[in-house]
Amino acid sequence: MKNLPTTIGELKKSGYEPRSIQEEMRSNLVQSLQKVESIFEGIIGYEDTVIPDIERAILSGHNINLLGLRGQAKTRIARQLTRLLDEFVPVVEGSELNDDPLAPISQFAKEKIAGEGDKTKITWLRRDERYVEKLATPDVSVADLIGDIDPIKAANLKLSYSDYRVIHYGIIPRSNRCIFVINELPDLQARIQVALFNILQEGDVQIRGFQLRIPLDVKFIFTANPEDYTNRGSIITPLKDRIGSQILTHYPKDIEIGKKITAQEAKMTDFQKENIEVSDLSRTLIERIAFMARDSEYVDSKSGVSARLTITAFESLLSTIERRMLMNNEGKSSARISDLQGVLPAINGKVELVYEGEQEGAAAVAQHLVSAAIKEEFLMNFPDPNRLSKVTDKNPVQPIRDWFAAGNVLDILLSDNTAAYQNGLKKVTGLAKFVKQFKPKVKGDELILWMEFVIYGLSEYSLLLRNQLVKGSQFKDLVGSIFSEEDFFNEN
Predict the structure, then answer these.
(1) DSSP strand E in 346-454: where?
(2) What is the pTM (predicted TM-score) of this model?
């Protein structure tokens, strides 16, 4: 900023020409598209859907409404639009409305320039200072957004209420030449939404009957959740009509995109990065939990399942592993299927339950989602075990079932050290052979993880019985357990 003009006279000599924020963003976007540069960082999965729509809206000079369920990066997108602004823009010094020195709109700036001419001082506004965000709440008033008469200012300056200097400008006029974001637009009361009509259509405002025409230059970005349309409020039709483009956001289309988002957003300590290994299978299961939740009969689909579910679940998975390592004084460890028990608290508060889900209970629904994810993922890697069990010759599942049928029991506890965990799985006859038959390339710790996954998978397909323990899970023969219960009741 050292070499930037400091007066209007210097600004004129520099060749500066005023332009609207719409023209500014359009021009900078054109340059980015020509250079094949992306203005959005960390926005994954929208490359062929949302982002092209936003770019078309900006090229059209439209105000934008981002419509989508929670956790779909709407606010992050809005905040990154500042990258399309010029690095600095000139402002009349002391102006409340960020007046352009060569195209002033406020009475203050006009009078100052009329009195001082080319010697009028100017300052420069950085692009990151040209972003204003307001959360729509039912208590937001017209005075908050547009402005009102300030009696204290009138008294202090000894002015009458007819003097424009008694006006206190609201947040929108003070956002002139800025990107202005209203989050959760449907939460604004209908009469407040009406106050936005003139600003969107004509670019001007009226304050308490003052016959002022302030041609504001604001880029409006709105965000809204379709759930709000029925639960709390709605965007009134005339306002929707004045918003140029409504762009629909969405959740990740597939597991791989979800894994990239989670890997980017999840917080990991240096210790966790250096000492904990999370396999691709564990990462996939975390994402599949969210996919199962979005289709679950127990979860309200209208509310949505935020991407924050998988992010916090992944962070909880890391903490579950770290806690076990600290308890066993181990230097390094890797994720296990049993560690998914530790992510249940992260799921509980991230899903909105329908009536059936409320009857089940949040904890039971969370456990159901984990089980459903394991069952679904099993078929992505192995044949249907129920079909295999019908094959009498060379059924690869049979040796595993025979081991349990002989009365053997497998306990997998959350606190098991590495040796106890691995030795328990290695004792199960046929388990390693089953994994290698369908996953010939896996070995070492990854082989052990897949062996554990098969045990959990077989229990989900009712070929083994899984008893949930306080400290983990116990697996045993299903048929033998049924007969044992019958014998117990017959004896008593």
Answers:
(1) 410-413
(2) 0.86
